[in-house]
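To: structure subgroup
Subject: Chain for Friday's discussion

All,

I'm putting the inputs and outputs inline so they're searchable in the archive.
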Amino acid sequence: MKNSKRILPLAIVLMAAPAFSRPVQDGDIVAVASSNGSFKTLVAAVKAAGLVEALQGNGPFTVFAPTDAAFNKLEKHKPGTIAMLLKPENKAKLAAILKYHVVPGKVTAADVLALKNNTKVKTLQGSAVAVKNKHGVMVDKAKVVKTDVFATNGVIHVIDTVLMPK
């Protein structure tokens, strides 16, 4: 009986281990986002901003990727924003917003948890986002809802809010 009490927790850990490992998906950041049905607006924005080639590059990149629901939340708060940003004349502004979601290097969930709470991390846009890891992970005012979606040139962390540069 004593041995079964020791073996059961170990067996549970070993059975759960595959659930914690996330393999690298086929493709770069853009391909992985495109293959996921939750990023249609993000992918359209990346194309409109002319950032596809950059995000298909060697990287590595860390992308805080807002879902379609996050873009819908922005649209609900500021109607017409998405349509306005997708217009060709707003390409530079859209690119700046999207670059604010990208950090150079591959920053995994474990890396984020090792940071001091409220660490500033510089984005490709040039400004820094605040990463908070107390009571869940937040990037500025966005909650990280899924971590470590690996691509061949980086990692995606899914967020629930579109980040806006300050």
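Points worth raising on Friday:
The longest helix spans residues 2-20.
The chain has one domain: 27-159.

D.
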